[in-house]
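Researcher: For the annotation table, I need structure tokens for Thioredoxin domain-containing protein. Please keep the output clean. Sequence:
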Amino acid sequence: MYPMFASRRSLWKRALLTAALLGAGLGLSGLGVAQAQVGQLAAPLLAQPTFKDAKKAAGGVYLLPDGLVVQLNERGGYLLSATVTAPFSAQSTVSVSGGTATVQATTPPSADKAKAAAVGGVVGVLSGYGDGLAQPLAGLLTQPDALARLPLGINIDATPFMISAQTQGKLLRLSIAPAQINPAAFGKGAGVHVLAPKKAAKQPVVLRVYSDFQCPYCQQFEAQTLPALVGQLPDDVQIEFHQFPLESIHPLARPAAEASECAEQQGKFWPFKEALFADRAWLSGNPNVAFIAQAGKLGLNVEAFKSCLAERGGKAAVDAGLAEAASLGLNSTPTVFVNGYRAQNPYDAAGLLRMIDFARVAALAPAGSLKPVLFPAPLAPKP
């Protein structure tokens, strides 16, 4: 018997899959970077054996030989999301007392274990992770704790995807879509620097880069990835730089970030940012000397810049950037988002361009067509 409260989703969203993965000797990080299918062009997925031998019906529905039904949500050639449906007879009982739901599951029959394995296999194909996701997911779907909760629905954070699963009668429905952060969660004020699209756009695609001036990987992104990307960027892409100095491991990252904010006060953030990543002399000796010299080269009012450094005029903006990164749960740099989608490999310029195309298509999709169904706690106690 297990109590179910309003916080059920937050407790189970990651814990269930984590437990299954750990049981299989893997952690979430063990999934690595997949050549994901959901969130990319649909054609390569449809060429795979799983779908090659399937019967196609209307509405993007595919009937697989093992009795599973897969519905693919395509738009503009991209696969936005997918739903897998399978016969599933494991039963649970649900009772309510004092606003709290308790559930109890029966032991799943062997047929259900086979269906869970089949569902896991299809999700492995849909995600591009193969057995790395298929096996732990199949194990999760037959765990007593998960079985007990399936009638109410469970949500699983399998970054870069969100997976939801629920039993309805004698059917198991599982959906998968790229995980997405609500655009309202991203900062828009202090600590955020914006390069507008080349042409005005009603719905620009936003490339957000959370960066640390001392971070060598951020320098790699600035020196290699960004130049390759900028040369091919579509006209509707907006670039944002978000301050995220990792002070605990990069002691000079904050002084550099604050200096860049002082340059911003004179309208020179972008050239100052590019100069600090290109010329690393400020990492040796007194960084302020190098910052002031760079300000002079860029034609800033040096006295005003020196006063800003001395008074820490950029501190509030950097603090705001750190607060934003903390609210998003970020812990590494560079972290890159395209709209609300986090890039798994921020150094892959070609991959980022594909993400930009996908994000543009996804932004035009009808409301609710992209995300999997997320199940709130329907029997939560009233406040």
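Researcher: And a one-line annotation?
Model: The mean pLDDT is 83.
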